[in-house]
Specification:
The complex is a heterodimer of chains A (114) and B (111).
Chain A (H helix, E strand, L loop, with lengths): L3 E4 L2 E4 L5 E7 L5 E7 L6 E7 L2 E5 L6 E5 L5 E5 L8 E8 L8 E3 L3 E5 L1
Chain B lengths: L3 E4 L2 E5 L4 E7 L5 E7 L6 E6 L5 E4 L2 E5 L5 E6 L8 E8 L7 E2 L3 E6 L1
Protein backbone atom coordinates (compact mmCIF):
# COMPACT_ATOMS: atom_id res chain seq x y z
CA UNK A 1 0.00 0.00 0.00
CA UNK A 2 1.77 3.13 -1.26
CA UNK A 3 -0.94 5.64 -0.32
CA UNK A 4 -1.04 6.87 -3.92
CA UNK A 5 -4.49 6.53 -5.47
CA UNK A 6 -5.25 6.91 -9.16
CA UNK A 7 -8.55 7.10 -11.00
CA UNK A 8 -10.02 5.80 -13.14
CA UNK A 9 -8.29 2.43 -13.21
CA UNK A 10 -9.34 1.69 -16.79
CA UNK A 11 -10.88 3.77 -19.55
CA UNK A 12 -11.50 3.63 -23.26
CA UNK A 13 -11.46 6.68 -25.51
CA UNK A 14 -11.53 7.27 -29.24
CA UNK A 15 -8.94 9.07 -31.31
CA UNK A 16 -9.22 12.85 -31.06
CA UNK A 17 -10.94 12.85 -27.67
CA UNK A 18 -9.54 14.35 -24.48
CA UNK A 19 -8.87 12.56 -21.19
CA UNK A 20 -8.22 13.59 -17.59
CA UNK A 21 -6.51 11.23 -15.17
CA UNK A 22 -6.37 11.89 -11.43
CA UNK A 23 -3.96 11.14 -8.61
CA UNK A 24 -4.02 11.73 -4.87
CA UNK A 25 -1.56 10.96 -2.12
CA UNK A 26 -2.39 10.24 1.51
CA UNK A 27 0.96 11.52 2.67
CA UNK A 28 0.61 14.94 1.08
CA UNK A 29 4.05 14.94 -0.50
CA UNK A 30 4.57 18.14 -2.45
CA UNK A 31 6.17 16.52 -5.52
CA UNK A 32 4.25 14.43 -8.03
CA UNK A 33 5.52 12.82 -11.23
CA UNK A 34 3.65 11.23 -14.12
CA UNK A 35 4.99 8.38 -16.23
CA UNK A 36 3.68 6.63 -19.35
CA UNK A 37 4.25 2.88 -19.59
CA UNK A 38 3.53 1.28 -22.96
CA UNK A 39 2.89 -2.45 -23.05
CA UNK A 40 6.11 -4.41 -22.53
CA UNK A 41 8.17 -1.28 -21.84
CA UNK A 42 9.55 0.54 -18.85
CA UNK A 43 7.89 3.74 -17.62
CA UNK A 44 8.77 6.98 -19.43
CA UNK A 45 8.85 10.32 -17.62
CA UNK A 46 6.17 12.78 -18.74
CA UNK A 47 6.58 15.61 -16.22
CA UNK A 48 6.90 16.51 -12.56
CA UNK A 49 5.06 19.08 -10.46
CA UNK A 50 6.40 20.71 -7.32
CA UNK A 51 4.30 23.13 -5.30
CA UNK A 52 1.80 23.45 -8.16
CA UNK A 53 4.44 24.36 -10.80
CA UNK A 54 5.82 22.15 -13.57
CA UNK A 55 9.33 21.27 -12.48
CA UNK A 56 10.68 19.17 -15.33
CA UNK A 57 9.33 17.64 -18.51
CA UNK A 58 10.19 14.63 -20.63
CA UNK A 59 9.94 14.26 -24.39
CA UNK A 60 6.16 14.60 -24.65
CA UNK A 61 4.22 17.10 -26.81
CA UNK A 62 2.27 20.05 -25.33
CA UNK A 63 -1.03 18.18 -25.65
CA UNK A 64 0.12 16.40 -22.48
CA UNK A 65 -0.48 18.83 -19.63
CA UNK A 66 -0.90 18.66 -15.91
CA UNK A 67 -2.07 20.36 -12.77
CA UNK A 68 -1.19 20.06 -9.12
CA UNK A 69 -3.60 21.39 -6.52
CA UNK A 70 -2.94 22.95 -3.08
CA UNK A 71 -3.85 19.63 -1.44
CA UNK A 72 -1.10 18.02 -3.62
CA UNK A 73 -3.55 16.00 -5.69
CA UNK A 74 -2.77 16.08 -9.39
CA UNK A 75 -4.26 15.68 -12.86
CA UNK A 76 -2.82 14.58 -16.18
CA UNK A 77 -4.68 15.87 -19.23
CA UNK A 78 -4.15 14.58 -22.74
CA UNK A 79 -5.79 16.34 -25.68
CA UNK A 80 -6.33 15.12 -29.23
CA UNK A 81 -5.75 11.50 -28.29
CA UNK A 82 -3.78 9.32 -30.69
CA UNK A 83 -3.70 5.53 -30.92
CA UNK A 84 -0.12 5.50 -29.56
CA UNK A 85 -1.35 7.15 -26.36
CA UNK A 86 -2.72 3.77 -25.31
CA UNK A 87 -0.69 2.90 -22.21
CA UNK A 88 -0.63 2.62 -18.43
CA UNK A 89 -0.27 6.06 -16.87
CA UNK A 90 1.47 6.06 -13.51
CA UNK A 91 1.50 8.76 -10.88
CA UNK A 92 4.29 8.81 -8.29
CA UNK A 93 5.26 10.80 -5.22
CA UNK A 94 8.61 10.95 -3.48
CA UNK A 95 8.90 8.52 -0.61
CA UNK A 96 11.10 10.84 1.39
CA UNK A 97 12.44 14.36 1.28
CA UNK A 98 15.57 14.74 -0.82
CA UNK A 99 15.52 11.24 -2.30
CA UNK A 100 13.89 12.22 -5.56
CA UNK A 101 14.40 8.82 -7.17
CA UNK A 102 12.74 6.86 -4.39
CA UNK A 103 9.17 6.94 -5.63
CA UNK A 104 5.84 5.58 -4.44
CA UNK A 105 3.79 4.68 -7.51
CA UNK A 106 0.05 4.34 -7.79
CA UNK A 107 -1.52 1.34 -9.51
CA UNK A 108 -1.98 3.33 -12.69
CA UNK A 109 -4.75 4.24 -15.10
CA UNK A 110 -4.87 2.03 -18.18
CA UNK A 111 -5.96 4.07 -21.20
CA UNK A 112 -7.05 2.42 -24.43
CA UNK A 113 -7.48 4.66 -27.48
CA UNK A 114 -9.53 3.20 -30.33
CA UNK B 1 18.82 10.48 -25.24
CA UNK B 2 19.67 8.35 -22.28
CA UNK B 3 18.83 4.67 -22.57
CA UNK B 4 19.24 1.76 -20.22
CA UNK B 5 19.83 -1.70 -21.64
CA UNK B 6 18.53 -4.33 -19.29
CA UNK B 7 19.27 -8.04 -19.62
CA UNK B 8 18.08 -10.64 -19.83
CA UNK B 9 14.63 -9.67 -21.09
CA UNK B 10 13.13 -12.77 -19.49
CA UNK B 11 14.20 -15.60 -17.21
CA UNK B 12 12.62 -18.97 -16.48
CA UNK B 13 14.07 -20.61 -13.37
CA UNK B 14 13.33 -23.24 -10.76
CA UNK B 15 12.30 -22.27 -7.26
CA UNK B 16 15.36 -22.03 -5.04
CA UNK B 17 17.73 -20.92 -7.80
CA UNK B 18 19.71 -17.70 -7.64
CA UNK B 19 18.97 -14.96 -10.18
CA UNK B 20 21.18 -12.30 -11.67
CA UNK B 21 20.19 -9.42 -13.96
CA UNK B 22 21.98 -6.29 -15.05
CA UNK B 23 21.57 -2.91 -16.58
CA UNK B 24 24.02 -0.90 -18.68
CA UNK B 25 24.07 2.58 -20.12
CA UNK B 26 26.23 4.75 -22.33
CA UNK B 27 25.52 7.63 -19.90
CA UNK B 28 26.70 8.16 -16.35
CA UNK B 29 24.07 8.14 -13.62
CA UNK B 30 24.42 9.41 -10.05
CA UNK B 31 21.72 7.17 -8.67
CA UNK B 32 20.70 3.64 -9.62
CA UNK B 33 17.46 2.09 -8.43
CA UNK B 34 15.75 -1.25 -8.82
CA UNK B 35 11.96 -1.58 -8.89
CA UNK B 36 9.63 -4.61 -9.14
CA UNK B 37 6.24 -4.52 -10.83
CA UNK B 38 3.52 -7.11 -10.31
CA UNK B 39 0.59 -7.46 -12.74
CA UNK B 40 -1.96 -4.69 -12.31
CA UNK B 41 0.29 -2.75 -9.94
CA UNK B 42 2.69 0.13 -10.10
CA UNK B 43 6.44 -0.41 -9.63
CA UNK B 44 7.66 -0.85 -6.05
CA UNK B 45 11.13 0.28 -4.97
CA UNK B 46 13.47 -2.55 -3.94
CA UNK B 47 16.90 -0.94 -3.59
CA UNK B 48 18.43 2.51 -4.13
CA UNK B 49 22.17 3.03 -4.73
CA UNK B 50 23.93 6.37 -4.42
CA UNK B 51 27.69 5.77 -4.66
CA UNK B 52 29.86 4.16 -7.32
CA UNK B 53 30.94 0.73 -6.10
CA UNK B 54 28.20 0.61 -3.45
CA UNK B 55 26.84 -2.86 -2.66
CA UNK B 56 23.48 -2.91 -0.86
CA UNK B 57 21.27 -5.75 0.33
CA UNK B 58 17.58 -5.95 1.09
CA UNK B 59 16.83 -9.42 2.42
CA UNK B 60 17.59 -11.91 -0.35
CA UNK B 61 18.22 -9.09 -2.82
CA UNK B 62 21.65 -7.58 -3.44
CA UNK B 63 22.40 -4.76 -5.86
CA UNK B 64 25.59 -3.00 -6.87
CA UNK B 65 26.31 0.41 -8.36
CA UNK B 66 28.98 -0.13 -11.02
CA UNK B 67 32.32 1.59 -10.53
CA UNK B 68 32.04 3.36 -13.92
CA UNK B 69 28.56 4.64 -12.90
CA UNK B 70 27.27 3.22 -16.19
CA UNK B 71 25.94 -0.08 -14.91
CA UNK B 72 24.24 -1.89 -12.06
CA UNK B 73 23.26 -5.45 -11.27
CA UNK B 74 20.65 -7.12 -9.09
CA UNK B 75 20.95 -10.58 -7.58
CA UNK B 76 18.18 -12.56 -5.94
CA UNK B 77 19.21 -15.55 -3.86
CA UNK B 78 17.13 -18.68 -3.23
CA UNK B 79 14.16 -17.53 -5.33
CA UNK B 80 10.61 -18.10 -4.09
CA UNK B 81 7.28 -17.94 -5.97
CA UNK B 82 6.52 -14.38 -4.83
CA UNK B 83 9.67 -13.18 -6.64
CA UNK B 84 7.75 -13.58 -9.92
CA UNK B 85 7.26 -10.27 -11.68
CA UNK B 86 9.02 -7.70 -13.83
CA UNK B 87 12.18 -6.07 -12.49
CA UNK B 88 13.18 -2.62 -13.72
CA UNK B 89 16.42 -0.77 -13.28
CA UNK B 90 16.26 3.01 -13.25
CA UNK B 91 18.92 5.69 -13.36
CA UNK B 92 18.87 9.30 -12.30
CA UNK B 93 21.27 12.13 -13.07
CA UNK B 94 22.02 14.51 -10.21
CA UNK B 95 19.68 17.48 -10.27
CA UNK B 96 17.32 15.87 -12.78
CA UNK B 97 13.75 15.13 -11.83
CA UNK B 98 13.21 12.17 -14.09
CA UNK B 99 14.09 8.53 -13.75
CA UNK B 100 15.22 6.69 -16.89
CA UNK B 101 13.93 3.11 -16.80
CA UNK B 102 15.19 -0.04 -18.49
CA UNK B 103 12.83 -2.24 -20.46
CA UNK B 104 12.50 -4.76 -17.65
CA UNK B 105 13.41 -8.37 -16.89
CA UNK B 106 10.43 -10.71 -16.60
CA UNK B 107 11.08 -13.42 -14.01
CA UNK B 108 9.08 -16.65 -14.10
CA UNK B 109 9.59 -19.36 -11.49
CA UNK B 110 8.67 -23.01 -11.91
CA UNK B 111 7.73 -24.57 -8.58
Amino acid sequence: ETGVTQSPTHLIKTRGQQVTLRCSSQSGHNTVSWYQQALGQGPQFIFQYYREEENGRGNFPPRFSGLQFPNYSSELNVNALELDDSALYLCATNSKQGATGELFFGEGSRLTVL
Amino acid sequence: GQQLNQSPQSMFIQEGEDVSMNCTSSSIFNTWLWYKQDPGEGPVLLIALYKAGELTSNGRLTAQFGITRKDSFLNISASIPSDVGIYFCAGQIQGAQKLVFGQGTRLTINP
